[in-house]
Amino acid sequence: MKSPETAAASRFASKRSSFFVAAGILLSRIAGLIRDRVFAHYFGNSDAADAFKAAFRIPNALSNLFGEGVLSASFIPVYAGLLARDEDEEARRTAGAVAALLALSTSILVLIGVLATPYLIDAIAPGFSGDKRELTIRIVRILFPGAGLLVLSAWCLGILNSHRRFFLSYTAPVIWNAAMIATMWGFGGRYAQYPLAEVLSWGSVIGSALQVAVQLPVVLRLLRGLHLSLAFHLENVRTVVRNFCCRPAPLRLWLTRRRCTRCPSACLECRSRRRNFRPCPERSEQNQKLPNYCVCD
Fold this sequence. Notes:
By secondary structure, the protein is an all-alpha fold. It folds into 2 domains: about 5-260, no CATH class; about 260-295, no CATH class. The protein is about 75% helix and about 0% strand. It contains 11 helices and no strands. α2 packs parallel to α3 (about 70-85) and α3 (about 70-85) packs parallel to α6. The longest helix has about 40 residues, at about 5-45. The chain is globular, with a radius of gyration of 21 Å.
């Protein structure tokens, strides 16, 4: 049994960790609200806004597939278990191998996504045509590398959370939001909406890089260096991969969201809000084939 002092210290550590997680998420959500408000100021419900939001969904599927939810569920239990058993060297090897596998797989998917963007647009936003479609294609090709960086940020989050460094991992997205806000404030008065949407895409990629950059020094210090290797033969790495492959939730989520893609582009504003099911504002008596709901992020 734990002594009263040990139990009290454990409860205090748990409350402290919960506070840091809540504070980090709160700051991230506030930054996201400010970003959405600034975006609405410069873009409103224009074609450029529709193109950017639709384009953002495609590389976002990569983040959903490899992002912090699934990656944390597959990687953190293995890595944290090694730390708990004082197998620090094995934990470092596992972390390096997982990082290398993630970097390789996301690089391949990013390259495929950039090359296949026109076909992805036809699947995700079939109603787009002309300049609006071309803008969406350009934005997607810019955003894909940023999505790959966010996958690496999710790996950093797994390392930090395993070492109970919660505040940094959950406030890092503030940097990404801040980069987008600064881009819109800095260039919003100098560019028309279409070129501004492309500039904002580059701002998003820079924000993704900064989100990784603020976490990486602490991660490297915790790991005492990083040795990348494609050591798939390690049993712990295989366990991470098995855990990852046995969680189909991101695919189910993407398929659920896909059900609403027949809504007209104006409905993207509804889908950008974080709700589960909302009445579709574009449904009308003249077009009963439209779905009566929207699935939002």
